[in-house]
Write a structure and sequence with these properties.
Elements lengths: L1 E10 L3 H12 L4 E4 L6 H5 L2 H19 L13 H15 L5 H7 L2 E3 L3 E3 L4 E4 L2 E10 L3 E3 L27 E5 L3 H12 L3 E5 L10 H13 L3 E3 L4 E7 L2 E6 L2 E5 L1 E4 L3 E3 L31 E3 L10 H17 L11 E4 L4 E5 L3 H8 L3 E7 L4 H5 L6 E7 L2 E9 L2 H4 L1 H8 L4 H6 L9 H16 L2 H13 L2
Parallel strand pairs: 1-2, 1-6, 2-3, 6-16, 8-9, 8-14, 9-10
Antiparallel strand pairs: 4-5, 5-6, 7-15, 11-12, 12-13, 17-18, 18-21, 19-20, 20-21
Helix pairs in contact: 1-8, 3-4, 3-6
The chain binds flavin-adenine dinucleotide and nicotinamide-adenine-dinucleotide (NAD).
The site of flavin-adenine dinucleotide has 37 residues, from α1, α2, α3 and α8.
Length: 470
């Protein structure tokens, strides 16, 4: 077997591995990148990109279907295969950016094979033994397949096969009402599929219930059936007629999508040989993302924390400091946002109201502003929405937004939380009129209004000054 030495060996060329490889090689390190399947990982091939591309096609169908503003609604003529062709075209357009050619052009040695540790300092991939000063496990995650009796006896879809469909499903059952389940429910219902979501708990249960309701009400109004408190206990049937049994009754559809979470992709790595310990969530790491083997780090979904592309990229930025420069660094989570790209969108940073109340008690103030008070939202018919800002000692600690463009609107708050800014900084901002972005400033205004307008001292001072002014 050929042998090579390198500074850094990264296993997995997804969101985390690619960011790290590009950064490390351009800063002068010798980098080997090992990828066993498709460059770009889950996000490009089976996750963010295809799901957002399908949602875009679905939004187009919905715009036509709803009409409005004096434009007559029309039943959309949906070509499901063409919508999926748009999905593939979005992937193909981005793929060169994540390609072997681009990374080899940057100076990265790319090995297209599965990597497997031989011992605590060596990994084998594609018949080569790589001895590296540091390793980074960036192998991501795969769909969790729950032990529901009968599931292994029926054909089912996951995010890895859903985008291969070319014929529109007649009735899509989705087990799991998390972000994957709800995004794909709306995409499919808008493209003309009958959809039923089967959720064991509350749909979108990680989000503030008041804001999740805004999204769920819209989905229900568009025709998505959402059974909550309906844990799937048995699956049976065959292609075209699949039945899911739950405590709330049984549901039969033509297709089944399983979207009940993720499991870390660590099984091919032979981690025991490298003395790298794991938990059910992923590689066991400290705040510095270092594993139980001090030469080995883990980033992204494999590190067992938040599972988002921007987190994988952020992790890459954290580990590059100790790996390349020997400097300390640790990962934080308080400033990490998340967005579910339903229409309306659901965005969150920091704790929800309930989480913040549990943590801060009476010190917490919650400022609210409804989209129905925003002129642009009224002009464009997008008044279903609400922003809540959780404030402690004059600083925002959490923000929840449900509404049009919530993912864009959370931007200024990500800046505020990352830099520990105060509500005054947000209130000082002048937002262009008329924009949806004014909801951010109005929420800051809602925080200051009672302090300014309902404060007897302010009134007294104004009266005195008015008497004294010439
Ligand atoms: C349907 C869906 C929609 C999503 N939408 C969003 C979104 O809108 N926004 C967002 O932020 N996140 C989204 N996510 C989550 C996001 O895709 C992941 O958090 C992100 O891809 C994680 O990046 P990663 O680098 O950790 O892993 P990945 O991108 O999964 O990359 C891991 C790579 O490692 C490779 N690999 C695994 N084992 C080995 C091995 N032994 N040897 C060599 N290679 C190996 C895999 O083949 C893969 O290419 C979505 C996920 C799904 C499933
Ligand atoms: N927009 C985004 O950023 C985005 C989009 C999709 C996915 N993702 C990432 O992917 C991760 C996985 O998403 P997900 O939606 O698969 O998982 P999830 O864990 O967020 O939601 C899964 C849901 O399935 C339910 N469930 C589990 N077992 C069940 C059963 N037997 N019967 C009925 N319901 C059951 C759970 O109660 C839960 O609500 C997310 O947490 C997120 O990190 C992000």
């Amino acid at each position: 077997m050929a042998r090579m030495k390198t500074d850094l060996c990264i296993i997995g060329a997804g969101s985390g591995g690619l960011s790290l490889a590009a950064g490390a090689v351009q800063m002068g390190a010798r980098v080997v990148l090992v990828e066993g399947h498709r460059m770009g990982g889950d996000c490009l091939n089976y996750g963010c990109v295809p799901s957002k591309a399908l949602l875009a096609a679905a939004k187009q169908a919905q715009t036509v279907r709803e009409g409005g503003f004096g434009i007559a609604p029309v039943v959309p003529q949906v070509d499901y295969a063409a919508a999926m062709a748009h999905v593939q075209s979005a992937i193909a357009t981005i793929a060169p950016h994540d390609s072997v050619e681009r990374f080899e052009g940057l100076g990265v040695r790319v090995i297209q094979a599965w990597g497997r540790f031989l011992n605590d300092r060596e990994l084998e991939a594609g018949g080569e033994v790589i001895r590296a000063r540091r390793f980074v496990i960036a192998t991501g995650s795969r769909p969790l397949l729950p032990p529901i009796p009968g599931l292994d006896q029926v054909p089912y879809l996951t995010n890895e096969t859903l985008f291969d469909l070319r014929e529109r499903p007649g009735h899509l059952l989705i087990i799991g009402g998390g972000p994957i389940g709800m995004e794909m429910a709306q995409a499919n219902v808008r493209l003309g599929t009958k959809v039923t979501v089967i959720e064991g708990d509350r749909a979108l249960n990680r989000d503030d219930p008041e804001l999740a309701k805004i999204v769920l009400d819209r989905l229900r109004a568009e025709g998505v059936g959402i059974a909550e408190g309906a844990q799937a206990t048995r699956v049976s049937g065959k292609a075209g007629a699949i039945t899911v049994e739950t405590g709330q009754g049984s549901f039969t559809g033509t297709h089944l999508l399983v979207a009940v979470g993720r499991t870390p992709a660590l099984d091919r790595l032979n981690l025991a040989a490298a003395c790298v310990e794991t938990t059910r969530a992923g590689v066991k790491v400290g705040p510095d993302l270092r594993s139980t083997n001090r030469r080995v780090y883990a980033i992204g979904d494999a590190a067992g924390g938040l599972q988002f592309t921007h987190v994988a990229g952020y992790h890459a930025g954290v580990v590059i400091r100790p790996i390349l420069l020997g400097l300390p660094a640790s990962a934080r989570t308080a400033h990490i946002p998340r967005v579910t790209y339903t229409d309306p969108e659901l965005a969150q940073i920091g704790p929800t109201e309930a989480e913040a109340r549990a943590e801060h008690g009476a010190r917490l103030s919650v400022a609210r502003f409804a989209f129905s008070g925003n002129d642009r939202a009224i002009a464009t018919g997008q008044t279903d929405g609400l922003i809540k800002v959780m404030v402690v000692k004059g600083r925002p600690v959490g923000v929840s937004i449900a509404g049009a463009e919530a993912g864009e609107l959370i931007g200024p708050w990500t800046l505020a939380l990352a830099n520990n800014l105060k509500m005054t900084h947000v209130a000082n901002m002048v937002a262009p009129y008329p924009t949806l972005g004014e909801v951010n400033k109005r929420a800051a205004g809602a925080y200051f209004s009672p302090r300014l307008f309902e404060n007897p001292w302010v009134k007294r001072v104004v009266r005195v000054v008015q008497r004294l002014l010439p």
